[in-house]
Design a protein that fits this description.
CATH topology of the domain at 69-165 in chain B: Alpha-Beta Plaits
CATH class of the domain at 69-165 in chain B: Alpha Beta
Number of helices of chain B: 5
Shape of chain B: elongated
Number of domains of chain A: 3
Helix content of chain B: 10-25%
Largest sheet of chain B: 3 strands, antiparallel
CATH architecture of the domain at 69-165 in chain B: 2-Layer Sandwich
Radius of gyration of chain B: 29 Å
Strand order of the largest sheet of chain B: 2-3-5
CATH class of the largest domain in chain A: Alpha Beta
Structural class of chain B: alpha+beta
Structural class of chain A: alpha+beta
Helix content of chain A: 10-25%
Radius of gyration of chain A: 29 Å
Number of helices of chain A: 14
Distance between the termini of chain B: 93 Å
Largest sheet of chain A: 7 strands, mixed
Oligomer: heterodimer
Number of strands of chain B: 5
Number of strands of chain A: 24
Chain lengths: 542, 197
């Protein structure tokens, strides 16, 4: 691979790379606003100016203020080039920290802040704002302009998700390019020039495609803010862990931002992964963080309707084991969940195997029931994060692909299934589609959220949601992706696999004794190993 | 013997010292002298360090940090923009703020936000004054010169927005020393794009 020198350091690059991209691959940041690795090159912010010190030098004549003579004197300065637009060449020497470059960066910063309202106290971007970061790193001088800054529209509602503030905007055009290049919908554009520049909507349109939050995500300043996250939290209070989006089978990688003081998840942000989602996530995926708190089940309930009785968490595990003990394995149905981690599904499948269960099903959301539509960008047609993982677990342990919920209802009506042990909340969202289960005495549901399955349950046991546990989702491409616990569960609530392990030990089932996620994963890999060939085939992209 | 150690002779007590009587008489003499001077003596000669609090109060230094207050704008709304700088700076984590947005038809929409809830746990507060220092718009002050009124109820020490807004400073004022000239205010110097430059 050819290399060039950046500040004396050898940087390898692929033919066609620009200086900034080659440096970015090596983890070296050249300050920039308008450049984004996933977007085309605009080269309009001029923050990434660097000095190419090899080759023929071009000197620009300038007038420099001479403090002694008290007048401008002719001088020269080297011609700087934007690193985002200049192709890397072998044996090139680039300087991005020299005095000329530093001066250029400071001047660009001062220029961008010339009409900036500096309303950081009311700006949601404060704390993750490039203007703030680069002011500290590259400017550190006061503004010399003394007149009132130009005022522009503030708080413009661009659509159901985004609010625009023209005063804070630095016109990097990233949002325009996201709409054009990621979504292919030219809904944003720029109007006027100079300090009257502003981003506007296409006439008669709203910013309402499925990737609107990506415009906010790429905005380097506080010009675009998300209406959902607006004023909810200060980013410096938030901690971040790696998550996997639960919106669909693509399994986009995310950052889960949560406040450790309140144990509350506030938002998701896309995490770069070129194999899966590039740099992006869709709006519905970004909103899946709400599952961690909305419609959450936190109390175990024994019985249905008026006879329902709340149980303590310890009692719930005992009741779970006691109920399982009395059930006939031949007519017991086990329902895996395409919405729960592979670990949960694996332990449930192990329990099913140890009990000798014959009927295995998979609860999954159906796209048409929840109004989900896939597309060619990121959204997969299947709105379940772990259908492949749950299916693979069932096939590896029980040797057969699980049926769907319609099969379950059919078998219940046919009298083959007389009791149910189910994981997860989500089944068909159709009203009353699971009514047949209401007549069964024992419908045990382990769930984190309310939904169709818990609504027909005779025993509901709350378990940890994805934000409260370590786990694995297998996406539609067959890629196993781990996610990390963000917040603690409400008092006493454990992940489903732990609850099942506790119940299995009460029942005296052998071989199901795990204490850590790592042990479950090892066992899961061992179980999957002999059937690895089939599994790869089964989990090929749909 | 190690160098640098000085050996002193133990002094013998005299008979007067050993009996303690003259020393006790001397001490009591001082006490009784002060007692009569401060009780029956002329006012200007009294030497009393204590005051009869709460009937009498000492004057506090000008920078005494009393309980907090929130300053107001001219129209009585809180000057606070709910930026959370004070709760960030607070080492005792006693400030809880929930920001909210003005409605779109409000002239302040987009320029300001306001605290929907602003609660200070005065029991948890350590009165360090960092919140006052952190505030970018002179919205929180500790210049009331007041102590917390005592109570046996913990909840009484959670001071909400209304209480904090209605506490005056020591000079009796409620207004912020830093009025920002927002659009909508007659003093606002800027112009919007619609009005031309």
């Amino acid at each position: 691979m050819p290399t060039f020198k950046l500040n004396g350091q050898e940087i390898p690059f692929e033919p066609g790379d620009t200086i900034i991209r080659a440096a970015w691959r090596q983890g070296i940041e050249i300050p920039h606003y308008c450049w984004h690795p996933g977007l085309s090159i605009a080269a309009n912010c001029r923050m990434c100016l660097v000095h190419v010190t090899s080759g023929r030098q071009m000197a620009m004549p300038v007038l420099r203020w001479d403090e002694k003579k008290k007048e401008y004197v002719p001088d020269t300065k080297p011609k700087l080039v934007p690193a985002c637009q200049t192709g890397a060449q072998a044996d090139m020497e680039v300087d991005s920290v020299g005095p000329e470059v530093q001066q250029a960066q400071a001047h660009v910063q001062e220029f961008l802040l010339l009409n900036h309202p500096v309303d950081c106290p009311i700006c949601d971007q404060a704390g993750e704002c490039k203007l703030q970061d680069y002011y500290e790193e590259h400017q550190h001088t006061l503004k010399r302009k003394r007149t009132e800054p130009v005022h522009k529209p503030k708080g413009v509602r661009f659509g159901p998700t985004i609010v625009y503030d023209a005063e804070r905007c630095i016109m990097c055009t990233r949002c325009i390019r996201v709409c054009d290049e990621l979504v292919g919908d030219h809904v944003l554009d720029m109007r006027e020039r100079g300090n009257r520049n502003e981003i506007v909507l296409a006439p008669g349109r709203e910013l309402d495609h499925r990737y609107t939050l990506m415009t906010e995500h790429v905005c380097p300043v506080g010009a675009l803010t998300s209406r959902d996250f607006r004023f909810k939290a200060r980013v410096w209070f938030l901690k971040t862990v790696d998550g996997i989006c639960t919106g669909c089978a693509t399994g986009c990688n995310s950052h889960v931002d949560f406040d450790p003081r309140y144990g509350k998840v506030y938002r998701l942000r896309p995490r770069d992964n070129e194999q899966v989602n590039g740099f992006w996530m869709c709006d519905d995926g970004m909103m899946t963080y709400q599952e961690a708190h909305e419609h959450r089940v936190v109390t175990a309930v024994d019985g249905r309707g008026e006879d329902a009785e709340k149980l303590l968490q310890e009692e719930a595990t005992e009741e779970l084991a006691a109920r399982l003990k009395g059930l006939d394995a031949g007519s017991l149905a086990v329902v895996l969940s395409a919405h729960h981690a592979s670990e949960d599904n694996f332990v449930l499948a192990e329990v099913a195997k140890a009990l000798g269960v014959k009927h295995v099903y998979l609860a999954a959301r159906e796209a048409e029931d929840i109004g989900w539509e896939g597309d060619d960008i990121l959204r997969h047609a299947d709105p379940n994060p772990n259908r492949a993982g749950a299916t693979a677990v069932a096939e590896a342990l029980l040797g057969e692909a699980p049926g769907d919920l319609e099969d379950l209802v059919g078998d219940v009506l046919a009298g083959q299934v007389k009791s149910v042990l189910a994981l997860g909340a989500i089944g068909g969202e159709k009203e009353g589609s699971l009514d047949a289960l209401k007549n069964l005495a024992d419908v045990i549901v382990l769930t984190a959220n309310e939904g169709p399955l818990p609504s027909v349950a005779s025993l509901t046991v709350p378990v940890a949601s994805w934000a409260e546990m370590f786990g694995t989702f297998r996406n539609a491409k067959g890629l196993d992706q781990h996610f990390v616990r963000a917040i603690p569960s409400p008092e006493g609530i454990e992940p489903a696999w732990k609850t099942l392990v506790a119940a299995a030990q009460e029942l005296g089932l052998e071989g199901i004794a795990y204490a850590r996620t790592g042990e479950v994963r090892t066992a899961m890999n061992d179980a999957a190993a002999p059937a690895a060939g089939d599994e790869a085939q089964a989990s090929a992209p749909a | 013997m190690a160098a640098g150690v000085k050996v002193l002779e133990r002094k013998k007590r005299t008979l007067a010292e050993a009996s303690y009587v003259p020393e006790i008489a001397k001490g009591l003499g001082k006490t009784m002298g002060r007692f009569f001077k401060n009780t029956f003596g002329p006012e200007e000669k009294k030497e009393i360090a204590t005051v009869c609090y709460p009937e009498e109060k000492r004057e506090y230094p000008p920078r005494f940090r009393g309980i907090h207050r929130l300053t107001q704008r001219a129209d009585g709304s809180p000057r606070c923009v709910a930026c959370l700088c004070c709760s960030t700076a607070c080492p005792a984590q006693c400030i809880h703020i929930e920001p909210a947005e003005y409605e779109p038809d409000d002239p302040r929409y987009g320029y300001e936000r306001y605290p929907a809830k602003f609660i200070i746990d005065e029991l948890r507060c350590i009165f360090c004054g960092y919140c006052v220092e952190a505030c970018p718009c002179d919205a929180i002050r500790m210049d009331t010169g007041m102590h917390m009124p005592p109570s046996t109820e913990r909840g009484h020490f959670l001071y909400g927005k209304e209480v904090l807004l209605n506490l005056p400073g020591r000079d009796g004022t409620y207004l912020s020393g830093n009025p920002r000239h927002e659009p909508g205010d007659p003093t606002h110097p800027g112009v919007t794009r619609e009005q031309g430059h």
